[in-house]
């Protein structure tokens, strides 16, 4: 009986985590939509702004894979959309032709700075309490 109770507790905690995650992502999507971004788009811009804070600094796509919760192919498509919108630039790593770098453009940095308070406010609303 105790095993069943522990298992039920784990299931309930897992469902609570999923529920908080879904509410948070939906709220971030809602506040960023007018700016042409979704939660995953913002996450990539935010990581790039943090990992490569100087203008022109590069980040390997491989460094994003473990931090953005998307498959490699979905991340590649997302980066392609951000590139098409002029928010990032991709380049091939000279040392390892299989490696790809992503650089946040001036437009991407400006948009990130503009929407950062919106994303942080959405986090505060959904994760407080």
Task: State the total count of DSSP E strands.
Answer: 3
Radius of gyration: 18 Å
| Fraction of residues in H or I helices | 55-70%
Our count of helices gives 5
* Biggest sheet details: 3 strands, antiparallel
Overview of the structural elements:
The protein has 129 residues and is mainly alpha-helical. Helix content is 65%, strand content 10%. It is built from five helices and three strands; from the N terminus they run ααβααββα. Strands 1-3-2 form a three-stranded antiparallel sheet. Helix 1 (2-32) packs across helix 5 (106-127) and helix 2 packs across helix 5. The relative contact order is 0.16.
List keywords for this structure.
129 residues, mainly alpha, 3-stranded antiparallel sheet, 5 helices, globular
